[in-house]
Amino acid sequence: MRGWTMAAAAALLMGAGAASAHHGWAAYDDAEGQVTGVIETASLGQPHGLIKVRARDGLWDVMLAPPAAIERSGLKLDAVPRGAQVVARGHKRIDGTREMKTERLTVGGKTYDLYPARS
Known about the structure:
Elements: H1 2-23, E1 33-43, E2 50-55, E3 58-63, H2 67-73, E4 85-92, E5 99-107, E6 110-113
Parallel strand pairs: 3-5
Antiparallel strand pairs: 1-2, 1-4, 2-3, 4-5, 5-6
């Protein structure tokens, strides 16, 4: 039984590490950046919202907060329609992938603060 308990504990720790890595900020640049473009698609679902933004340099994955934080910011799906101009401010991936973890999103003249503690 002791071997099984240690194996289960190790599996839980590895799972927690993977979840932490997925939702953490370590893969993103410390400096704040910006992506400006036109919305192609938007989803505000689990595990976090995602907007595909066509910018001058290509298609970006603009990662948003989890649904509860999106709701607290006041952002609704109808505020991010296809074709709308958007400015995302946050942190770009350090590996050069066109992905940004977004802290603030401005669309239609309105700014949504997705991570107020980080702003």
